[in-house]
Amino acid sequence: MLLPIKPICRSNRIKKDGTAPIFLQYCYSRTKRTLLSTGIAVPPEYWQRKHLRISPQLPPQFGDASKLNDELLRQKRLVEDLVAEATKKQIEDKGAFVKKTFTPTLDLQSLDERVTVVAKQETVKKEAKQDIYYQFDEYIKTKERKVSKATLTVYGNVKAHLQAFEKYRQEKISFASFDFNFYHDFIDYLTFEHVHIRRQEVLTGLKLNTIGKTIKHLRGFIKDRVKRKIIAPIDLTDFKIPEEECDAIYLSHQEIATIYQTDLSGHPHLIEYRDLFVLACLTGLRFSDFSTLKPEDLQRDMLYKKQEKSDHWVIIPLREEAKHIFTRQFRERIPALTNPEFNRHIKTIGKLAGLNRSIKFSYKKGNKSIEVIKPKYDWITSHTARRSFCTNEFLAGTPVELIMKISGHKRTKDFYKYIRISPEEAANKIKELWIKRDGMRLVQTDTKIVLSKDINN
Asked: Are 269 and 370 in contact (CB under 8 A)?
């Protein structure tokens, strides 16, 4: 059985003078221990491991064995006193406390003062670790090598929303804050009061799906801290994730072709953006993936790309136009882009292509439905390309399982969120299938259908 506190000689750390340091080993649990330097060193052959002491035969040039053993005993008792103080003051991490407090020169008279200082430091440190924003930063650190940069940005936004809410209601948020009242007030704040940053005009309130994303990641953060036993379990039953079907456009193959054939000779700086957007429409790649394509990603007329968001490999066959764009325009390099810059330019391109039809969408803000009417080109974003690819392939009859292999979607539920067809398009698609199947007729003979017989016969 291990002794809680005992001196040991580290013979694997022999110095140039042939001596090895002696430490006090403090075992503060079955699996955890810490080493405390005594400042004493002797040749390892003069350490009596069985008796835990220095041999009386120690050559004089290394010190007096009797006095050195007495010093080891004094220091051991000092560590025992420190452990007793840590227990008295109910310090959880006794190992860290003892290691931080102990020094070979510490005397009993200054022990109380030293213990008080370190205990206060440990209390401050413990309180800091319970700070929600400290823990959020720690949570983000654990995710840095597992999720995309875009997802890390979302985590940062969730933290910023909490800080803004804290400032708004002038009440510090702690883990104890998370109850139904907090959830209700937080949703209300995000819906009506939250002020958008980095906007020229003052905008307040977030869309329902953005609020839902905030709650989703807040729940994930809290569950992670509970699983790691950093905080006590929290009932999140009432923390529902609000969401609504997202209104968004897609571009038909004809509209994509129109964009591709638009004359941009008067706007040569837009050609790269136009071609990259068309390439994305024909491959279904996200901005984070199509903006980082490399020449070696093209093999045997197919793109081999590891998706940044899902860390999932996809293999995408290239249409002739997509292959032509990649080999002609982007074989050597993809221009350095930012998503806002890309979105701004492709809206201009959509306008030049004549995509001017007015589109009306609505979204929820509390119990109100807010309608927004803009020309179609003004609804285009980088994500329109991925949505267009999925919708066009779906309408063309490509099996959903095959589309998902290219889009990288892992769940059918998530895939169908990308399908953007109007009720009229759905009706026309069904009609087309019926015509191919049976010519829109139920009975394929000239015999008249007798629906009923005379009930008297």
From this structure: no
User: 287 or 197: which carries more pLDDT confidence?
Assistant: 287
> For residue range 331-388, what is the model confidence (pLDDT) as tens digits?
667 778 888 899 999 999 999 999 999 988 877 777 778 888 999 999 999 999 999 9
Structure tokens at 23: 């430490």
Strand order from edge to edge, sheet including 5-9: 5-9, 20-27, 33-42
pTM confidence score? 0.61
**What is the number of alpha carbons within 13 Å of residue 103 lying toward its C-beta?**
9
pLDDT tens for each residue of 79-117: 998 888 888 877 778 888 888 888 888 776 666 676 667
Predicted confidence (pLDDT) per residue in 129-154, tens digit: 779 999 999 999 999 888 878 889 99
Residue 392 sits at the vertex; the CA angle it makes with 314 and 313, to the nearest 5 degrees, is: 5
Name residue, tokens 């350490």: 47
CA dist 330 and 326 (Å) reads 5
Calpha distance 79→84 (Å, rounded): 9
Q: How many residues does the chain have?
A: 457
